[in-house]
């Protein structure tokens, strides 16, 4: 702890409430807590200990942290928070949030049967992924298999890479990988690519295997792909799109406006449709983008922005 004694603000002493409860201890929530702590705002950060990048051992594409283990980044961030006396961190799962009736009465967060009051609420609860149920794929996800070429693409440099799927973005994924991989093979798993996708795949020189995929096994190169018919395929990496949903039920509990992606709609400052509630990280984005730009750095940046907006709101 720092030697400086930092008093809670007048508002906090008057109400007994935190000024901000941040739900989520991933990069969005940790950065938000840091920003609020540096502004001497009373903050409680709640963390249920389940993070989107749990499947991976190394995160990439974050300057000064390229290749660092996600758990190490979080440990560093938590250590930094201990320098700020108005920040408390509590491990546990919040189960319910609600608005307290009355003007500017704030919110309550229920955790371990205890209702904790706060003037503002910052949701940084992230999303959870669902993979196609192809046998063997889940065990490779986060190492040999990835969903994002910005995060895990360079790691397949010079190796053959499979792109699994027949959705609208398969051609774009193949195009992103061709400068990196020795060859790109699109696995449609028995489906047909649409005309535009087929043209894009052909245009970048990727090949297509359209047989049903029966499974993935780890191999010395990366993975062996087996098919219902035809020879196995050895690849160094697999790119696969996931579907995702909110990790926490709070957007529904609060009636927040959602976007087509299933994420919480926020403005450029991280404000949701409900005054006093902010959201940041993978769980939220503005209507200007079709989905969140899911990355550790972007989540942290959004956390900082939402925290700055909280400070502005606390000033009145
Ligand atoms: C396999 C994989 C690899 C990735 N690799 C990279 C990479 O290399 N580089 C990169 O930049 N990005 C990578 N990403 C993306 C990155 O992980 C996310 O963009 C980032 O973690 C989002 O941060 P977040 O803070 O929004 O959510 P998260 O990191 O998912 O954190 C959510 C937090 O909310 C908490 N929470 C949820 N519900 C509750 C509740 N009810 N009560 C209390 N706490 C709750 C969780 O415990 C957690 O602390 C990867 C993603 C995946 C799936």
How would you characterize this protein structure?
With 316 residues, this protein is of the alpha/beta class. The chain folds into two domains: 10-128 and 243-315, FAD/NAD(P)-binding domain, CATH 3.50.50; 132-240, FAD/NAD(P)-binding domain. 24% of the residues lie in helices and 27% in strands. The protein is built from eight helices and 19 strands. The chain has helices at residues 10-15, 27-38, 70-81, 137-140, 170-177, 195-203, 250-254, 296-315, and strands at residues 18-23, 43-47, 87-91, 94-99, 107-111, 114-123, 127-130, 145-146, 160-164, 183-187, 207-209, 213-218, 223-227, 233-235, 237-240, 243-246, 264-265, 277-279, 284-285. Strands 1, 2, 3, 4, 5, 6 and 18 form a seven-stranded mixed sheet that branches. The radius of gyration is 22 Å and the shape is elongated. The two termini are 30 Å apart. The relative contact order is 0.18. Mean pLDDT is 93; it is low at 1-11. The site of flavin-adenine dinucleotide has 40 residues, from α2, β2 and α8.
What's the architecture of the largest domain, going by CATH? 3-Layer(bba) Sandwich
Class of the largest domain in CATH?
Alpha Beta
Main sheet makeup = 7 strands, mixed
Q: Helix-strand pattern, N to C?
A: HEHEHEEEEEHEEHEHEEEEEEHEEEH
Outline of this structure?
This protein is of the alpha/beta class and 316 residues long. Helix content is 24%, strand content 27%. Strand 5 and strand 6 form a beta hairpin.
